[in-house]
Specification:
About 35% of the residues lie in helices and about 25% in strands. The chain is elongated, with a radius of gyration of 30 Å. The two termini are about 20 Å apart. Bound molecules: nicotinamide-adenine-dinucleotide.
Length: about 525
């Protein structure tokens, strides 16, 4: 396993990745050509904001499975290009929330109490006591635009200052607001009531320039605007004008439309306290961001656990742990279908029943599509790009579910429709975690889903098991289990075998072995499946 760290990360982060057999290469501030060369056999790439992970870079990284951004914004990563190549993109969004929240409070206090102006007067030998009276935060109303990770941390701290906290966040559960002692409000109401407005939303099409001339005009006279989120949430020219007119009392800014700003007019106003995008620049946040991203990468490379992915639905560690055996089952069942199926794939149906029908189970469809497409595509197929690849190839995907429990607590049923016909399989996971196929093309047959399987259908006649056993024995192939199911004249068999390829010419289920099995009179079909 090779991991490249392309930007500065604390040593503690690299230590998290120190595993026997894992090679860590630190390539900080090296020429891009060196980085590109190193990526030819790299599994994971960790960056901060300096390295541009663009399409060209990704094209030179055939083995890359994950790009990890230590920090929140992934502006420096071409997420679409990574997704198309099946590469997971992760970030470490929560690690600096407290640092940013504390900075938002620092800006509120500094703007209200003219800390920067007072300090600058002192430094120039001026006693400006009379010019610089302020106000208390206590009893004032704070309006949070966005009640996510950082907004919540700000709410906690603002309440400790005795403030009333409102939030505008149409996507947050009402219970979260209640838990943090926050009253949810519309943006208009928030602007009309708040003496302080602090922004904590991402920059999206809906939030860009949310605070434009019109919105600022609707703010309570004398209100302070605090922005530690993203510069483009505010029309800076309009804010400068509103402050100069005296409608807005002042601002505390850490982020700007252009960084560094091209026009310094807004930051030079005496009512504005400005810092150069340092809200997350604390010892603790840097350490935490590095540790968090390194642990996420480690878990992903180790056992596939996905945390904080920006191009894959999030699953908590607990949910992922619960779903993992079923994801394995989905992938193996679908892979079996792909390997026994013939013809062009046209449609794929997956049906969940029992407990997994109720769980957060998006991961199962992705896993199934990996199983279905990986055996036939040359591109790397992963959870990240499997759905897009299926759509690209015109495979119609249908999901259905029922919470009714049949013979098994959980059951995954799949159907693959191709130009040659339709094949069906069903499978389950037993209590001890073992994945089994339980039905093949309507015939009940129970076998473990692992290793090499010979999947057969035959007329229900005596002697088939003996003849197949003899053929396998002749080719030095050991039989693990021989599962047989019957249904009115038809039989299906799943034979798990041990292949011992070290034996010259023998010990493997070759085309010749399959031909010999197919030549047995009652056998209609024999295919090998490798999982
Ligand atoms: P988060 O994803 O946890 O929270 C964002 C919240 O905004 C969510 O609750 C979401 O529901 C809400 N939201 C999204 N669209 C909205 C809309 N149109 N209207 C209202 N609410 C909306 O994010 P976070 O970690 O709290 O980060 C908040 C902001 O802080 C982001 O812009 C992030 O980039 C920025 N940030 C800045 C720094 C810095 O150094 N200054 C560091 C980290 C994060």
């Amino acid at each position: 396993m090779k991991i490249v760290i392309a930007d500065e990360l604390p040593n503690s982060a690299a230590e998290v990745l120190a595993e026997p057999g894992w090679q860590i290469e630190r390539l900080v501030r090296v020429p891009r050509t060196d980085l590109i060369a190193a990526l030819s056999d790299t599994d994971a790439l960790i960056v901060r904001s300096a390295t541009k992970v663009d399409k060209e870079l990704l094209e030179h990284a055939p083995r890359l499975r994950v790009v990890a951004r230590a920090g929140t914004g992934v502006d420096n990563v071409d997420v679409a290009a990574a997704s198309a190549r099946g590469i997971l993109v992760m970030n470490s969004p929560g690690a600096n929330s407290v640092s940013v929240a504390e900075h938002a409070l620092a800006l509120m206090l500094a703007a209200t109490r003219s800390v920067a102006r007072a300090d600058s007067a002192m430094k120039s030998g001026r006693w400006a006591k009379r010019d610089l009276s302020g106000a208390e935060l206590r009893g004032k109303t704070l309006g949070l635009v966005g009640l996510g990770r950082i907004g919540q941390e700000v709410a906690l701290r603002a309440r400790a200052f005795g403030m009333t906290v409102l939030a505008y966040d149409p996507f947050i559960a009402a219970q979260v607001a209640t838990d943090f002692g926050v009253e949810l409000a519309s943006l208009d109401e928030l602007c009309a009531r708040a003496e302080y407005i602090s922004l904590h939303v991402p920059s999206t099409a809906a939030t860009r320039r949310l605070f434009d001339r019109d919105r600022l005009a609707r703010c309570k006279p004398g209100a302070f605007i605090i922005n530690t989120a993203r510069g483009d949430l505010i029309d800076e020219a309009a804010l400068a004008e509103a402050i100069e007119r005296g409608h807005i009392g002042g601002a505390g800014l850490d982020v700007y439309e252009q960084e560094p700003p091209r026009d310094w007019h807004l930051t030079s106003l005496p009512q504005v306290v400005a810092t150069p995008h340092i809200a997350a620049s604390t010892v603790e946040a840097q350490e935490q961001v590095g540790l968090e991203i390194a642990s996420s990468v480690r878990e992903f490379l180790h056992d596939g656990t996905i945390r904080n992915a920006v191009n894959f639905p999030a699953l908590s560690a607990e949910e992922f742990g619960r779903m993992r055996p079923f994801a394995r089952l989905a992938q193996d069942l679908a892979s079996l279908l792909a390997q026994i199926g013939e013809g062009r794939m046209e449609g794929f149906l997956i049906h969940y029943s029992g407990e997994i029908a109720r769980a957060q189970n998006e991961v199962l469809l992705s896993a199934a599509l990996v199983g279905l497409l990986a055996p036939i595509l040359s591109t790397t197929v992963t959870f990240v790009n499997a759905r897009a690849l299926a759509a690209e190839r015109g495979v119609e995907v249908i999901e259905s579910r029922s919470s009714r429990i049949r013979n098994f607590q959980n059951l995954l049923a799949m159907e693959l429709r191709t130009s040659a016909g339709t094949r069906r399989v069903e499978g389950t996971v037993f209590d001890h975690g073992s994945a089994r196929i339980v039905r093949l093309d309507g015939v009940e047959v129970e076998a473990p889903l692992e290793g090499t399987l010979i999947v057969m259908s035959n007329d229900d006649q005596p002697g088939v098991i003996g003849e197949v056993g003899t053929i396998l024995g002749r080719h030095a192939i050991n039989i693990g289990t021989f599962a047989l199911g019957r249904e009115t004249g038809r039989a299906a068999a799943v034979v798990s075998v041990d292949e011992t390829p070290e034996r010259e010419g023998d010990g493997r289920v070759t085309g010749q072995v399959l031909e010999a099995i197919r030549a047995v009179r009652a056998v209609r079909e024999a295919k090998v499946v490798r999982l």
